[in-house]
C-alpha cells in the first residue's frame, strides 16, 4: 500500500508540473503583460477598462448574456437529464450519446447550421411568414441568436452533470416518500430536486464559465450589439495589437468569472447543509 | 464507499494526464523529427518551402498557377501551404517553420517595419520591372518588404433586386437599407472611405466616429472574414455591404443577385502580397517562388478564377474580364492606395476609437 501511495504522489507531482507549465505559466504571463507599460509596473490598462463606458457596458452585457444562457441551460438541461434518467437503464446510454453527439462536430459548423435556421430564409422565418406574423423575420445578429448559440454549446455539459447526480439518488428514498403518501410532484420538489442540486450547481458553473468566455458564438451569430468581452480581448490583442489591453480585459473577465463561481460554490455548500 | 469513488476518480484523472502527456511528447517528437529531416534533405538538394495562405479557393488557384509550375521548374523542391499567420503571431516567434508569408499590404509593411521580413531586391526578380508602382510594399526605411500579386478594389456590393445602385459611400447610411448593411470589423479602408464621405481629415476624425455611431444600429453585422458577405447576401440578411470586387463578382458569376460598384468618393486599393521571413533558411528559393506568383500566366489565372486584378503590367486579359477586375494603369490610379507607413502609427488609436464607437 505505501508503495502504491508513493506511486500516486509522484504522478500527482507530474500533474502539478504539467499544470504549472502549461496553464499557470501562460496565465502569469498574461497577468504581467497586463500590468506592464514599457517595462515598468502600471495599472494604466485596468484604469482604461474600468473608466471607459464602452468596456463596462460590454462587461455588463457579457455577464447578462452568460447568466440568461446559464438559467435556460439549467432548465432545459434538467428536463433532459430527468427524462434520460427515468428511461429504461438499457436505453439511457443511447440517449446520452444523442446529447453528446453534437460535440463530435466542430462548433463552427454547428453555428453555421444555426445561421441557416435563424436566417431570413430559414424555417423559422418561413413559418412566421406562413402565419402572416411578419414579412421580414430575421432572428440573427441579436441577443436572441447569441443566447440560442450559447445554450446549444453548453447544454451537453449541463445535462451530463445533472444526469450524474440524478443517477446517484437512492431509489429507496423516493420509494419511502411515495409510500408515506407524498404525491409525485411533492416527492420531486422535496426529495429529488434538493438531492440533485450538486449536479445543478456543477453544471451551472461550467455553463456560466463557458458562456462568459465564449468568443465564437458572438462572432458568428451576433451583430454589433452583441460583442462580448472575449471578443474585445481578441480584437485588442490580434487586430489592434495592444497586448496590454487585451490581457487586462482577459484578467478582468477571469476574475469576475471566478467570483461568480465561488459564489456558486458557497450556494452549493449551503444546499448540502440544508 | 465515498473514498472508493474518489480513488477511482483520481485514477482516471491520472490516467488521462498520462495519456495527455504521452500525446504531447509524441507531438513534440514528431515536429522535431520532421524539422530534422527537412534540414537533412536540404543538403542533398531537396528542400521544402512553407508558404502561408488564405485557405479555400485561393489555395486551389495558388497551387494550380504558382506552386505546380514552380515545383516543375525546381525539381526536388516541395511547397507546403500553411494556414494564414498574422503579424501578431509572427512577432511572437510563430514563423519559425515558415519561409514565405502571404498577407494584406498593411500587414506586410508592418511585419517589414518590425524587422521580421527580408528586404527584397530587384536582382532576384525577373518580373520586378514589369510591376505597377503600387505593387511594391515599402517599409518606413524605403526597403521593399513585400510584392503584391493581386489587386482588388474596396467599394460597395449590393443586391440589385432589392436596392438601387448606390452612388455614394453615404448610401450605406440610407434609410432604405436600414438593418440590412454589413461593414467589415476594424477595417481601415471602411474608415478611410467614411472619412472621405463626411469630409473628415486625419487631424480631426471625430465626424468619422460619429458616423459609425450613427450607422451601427442599422448594421446587421460587422463581419470579420472576407467571405462572410457571401452567405449574408445569400440568405437575404443584407442588401448592401462594404466589400471588395473579387469576391462580389465571383458571387455574381455564381448566379447570386449581387453587383459591385465603386462609390463616387473613390475606392480603396486592396492588395495582397508575399514576403520572405528573415528567419527562413531558403531565402533564394522563397524569392523565386514569389517571382513565380508575379508571372503573367499566374496572374491571368488569378484574374480568371478569382477576379483579382493583375499587378504585372504585361498581363493581357480578355476585354470582358478587363471590366470586371482592377486592370490597367488608369483604373488602378483612380483607387486610393493608403499610405500605410503613416497610417500604421494611427492604427491602434483609430481601431480603438472605432471599437468604442460601434459598441453600443
TrEMBL record, chain A:
Keyword Ribosomal protein included in the entry's annotation: no
Keyword Ion transport part of the UniProt annotation: no
Family per record: Belongs to the binding-protein-dependent transport system permease family. CysTW subfamily.
Protein localization: Cell membrane
Record's signal peptide: none
Protein name: ABC transporter permease
Bilayer topology annotation: Multi-pass membrane protein
Species for this entry: Paenibacillus cisolokensis
Entry keyword set: Cell membrane, Membrane, Transmembrane, Transmembrane helix, Transport
Annotated ABC transmembrane type-1 domain residues: 59-264
Spans traversing the lipid bilayer: 7-28, 63-85, 94-117, 137-160, 243-267
PANTHER family the record matches: ABC TRANSPORTER PERMEASE PROTEIN, INNER MEMBRANE ABC TRANSPORTER PERMEASE PROTEIN YDCU-RELATED-RELATED
Pfam families: BPD_transp_1
TrEMBL record, chain B:
Pfam families xref list: SBP_bac_8
SUPFAM superfamilies with a match to the protein in the record: Periplasmic binding protein-like II (SSF53850)
PROSITE patterns: PROKAR_LIPOPROTEIN (PS51257)
Span of the signal peptide: 1-26
Alphabetical UniProt keywords: Signal
Membrane recorded as keyword: no
CDD domains found in the cross-reference section: PBP2_polyamine_RpCGA009 (cd13589)
Name of the protein described by the UniProt record: Putrescine-binding periplasmic protein
The encoding gene: potD
Amino acid at each position: 500500500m505505501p508503495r502504491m501511495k508513493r506511486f500516486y504522489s509522484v504522478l500527482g507531482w507530474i500533474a502539478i508540473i504539467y499544470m504549472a507549465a502549461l496553464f499557470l505559466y501562460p496565465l502569469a504571463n498574461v497577468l504581467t503583460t497586463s500590468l506592464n507599460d514599457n517595462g515598468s509596473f502600471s495599472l494604466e490598462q485596468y484604469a482604461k477598462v474600468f473608466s471607459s463606458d464602452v468596456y463596462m457596458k460590454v462587461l455588463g452585457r457579457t455577464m447578462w448574456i452568460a447568466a440568461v444562457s446559464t438559467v435556460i441551460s439549467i432548465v432545459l438541461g434538467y428536463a433532459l437529464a430527468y427524462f434520460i434518467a427515468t428511461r429504461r437503464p438499457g436505453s439511457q446510454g443511447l440517449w446520452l450519446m444523442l446529447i453528446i453527439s453534437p460535440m463530435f462536430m466542430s462548433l463552427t459548423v454547428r453555428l453555421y447550421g444555426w445561421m441557416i435556421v435563424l436566417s431570413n430564409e430559414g424555417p423559422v422565418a418561413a413559418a412566421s411568414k406562413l402565419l402572416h406574423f411578419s414579412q421580414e423575420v430575421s432572428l440573427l445578429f441579436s441577443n436572441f441568436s447569441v443566447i440560442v448559440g450559447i445554450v446549444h454549446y453548453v447544454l451537453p455539459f449541463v445535462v451530463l452533470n445533472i444526469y450524474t447526480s440524478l443517477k446517484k439518488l437512492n431509489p429507496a428514498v423516493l420509494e419511502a416518500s411515495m409510500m408515506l403518501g407524498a404525491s409525485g410532484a411533492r416527492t420531486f420538489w422535496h426529495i429529488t430536486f434538493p438531492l440533485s442540486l450538486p449536479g445543478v450547481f456543477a453544471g451551472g458553473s461550467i455553463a456560466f464559465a463557458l458562456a462568459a468566455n465564449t468568443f465564437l458564438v458572438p462572432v458568428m451569430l451576433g451583430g454589433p450589439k452583441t460583442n462580448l468581452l472575449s471578443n474585445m480581448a481578441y480584437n485588442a490583442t490580434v487586430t489592434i495589437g495592444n497586448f496590454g489591453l487585451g490581457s487586462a480585459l482577459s484578467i478582468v473577465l477571469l476574475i469576475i468569472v471566478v467570483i461568480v463561481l465561488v459564489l456558486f460554490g458557497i450556494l452549493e455548500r449551503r444546499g448540502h447543509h440544508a | 464507499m465515498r473514498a472508493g469513488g474518489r480513488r477511482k476518480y483520481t485514477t482516471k484523472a491520472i490516467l488521462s494526464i498520462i495519456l495527455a502527456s504521452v500525446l504531447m511528447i509524441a507531438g513534440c517528437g514528431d515536429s522535431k523529427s520532421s524539422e530534422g529531416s527537412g534540414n537533412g534533405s536540404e543538403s542533398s538538394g531537396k528542400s521544402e518551402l512553407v508558404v502561408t495562405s488564405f485557405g479555400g479557393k485561393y489555395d486551389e488557384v495558388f497551387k494550380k498557377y504558382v506552386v505546380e509550375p514552380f515545383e516543375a521548374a525546381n525539381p526536388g523542391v516541395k511547397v507546403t501551404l500553411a494556414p494564414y499567420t498574422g503579424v501578431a503571431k509572427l512577432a511572437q516567434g510563430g514563423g519559425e517553420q515558415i519561409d514565405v508569408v502571404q498577407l494584406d499590404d498593411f500587414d506586410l509593411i508592418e511585419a517589414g517595419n518590425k524587422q521580421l521580413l527580408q528586404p527584397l531586391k530587384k536582382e532576384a526578380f525577373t518580373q520586378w520591372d514589369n510591376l505597377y508602382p503600387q505593387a511594391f510594399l515599402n517599409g518606413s526605411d524605403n526597403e521593399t518588404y513585400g510584392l503584391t500579386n493581386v489587386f482588388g478594389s474596396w467599394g460597395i456590393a449590393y443586391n440589385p433586386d432589392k436596392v438601387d445602385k448606390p452612388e455614394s459611400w453615404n448610401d450605406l447610411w440610407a434609410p432604405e437599407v436600414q438593418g440590412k448593411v454589413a461593414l467589415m470589423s476594424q477595417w481601415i479602408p471602411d474608415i478611410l472611405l467614411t472619412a472621405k464621405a463626411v469630409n473628415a481629415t486625419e487631424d480631426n476624425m471625430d465626424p468619422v466616429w460619429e458616423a459609425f455611431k450613427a450607422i451601427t444600429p442599422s448594421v446587421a453585422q460587422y463581419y470579420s472574414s472576407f467571405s462572410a458577405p457571401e452567405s449574408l447576401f445569400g440568405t437575404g440578411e443584407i442588401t448592401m455591404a462594404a466589400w471588395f470586387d473579387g469576391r462580389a463578382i465571383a458571387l455574381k458569376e455564381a448566379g447570386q443577385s449581387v453587383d459591385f460598384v465603386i462609390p463616387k468618393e473613390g475606392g480603396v486599393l486592396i492588395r495582397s502580397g508575399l514576403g520572405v521571413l528573415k528567419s527562413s533558411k531558403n531565402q533564394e528559393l522563397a524569392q523565386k517562388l514569389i517571382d513565380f506568383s508575379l508571372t503573367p500566366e499566374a496572374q491571368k489565372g488569378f484574374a480568371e478564377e478569382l477576379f483579382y486584378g493583375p499587378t504585372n503590367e504585361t498581363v493581357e486579359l480578355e476585354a470582358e474580364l478587363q471590366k470586371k477586375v482592377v486592370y490597367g494603369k488608369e483604373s488602378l490610379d483612380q483607387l486610393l492606395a493608403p499610405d500605410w507607413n503613416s497610417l500604421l502609427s494611427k492604427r491602434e488609436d483609430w481601431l480603438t476609437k472605432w471599437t468604442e464607437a460601434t459598441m453600443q
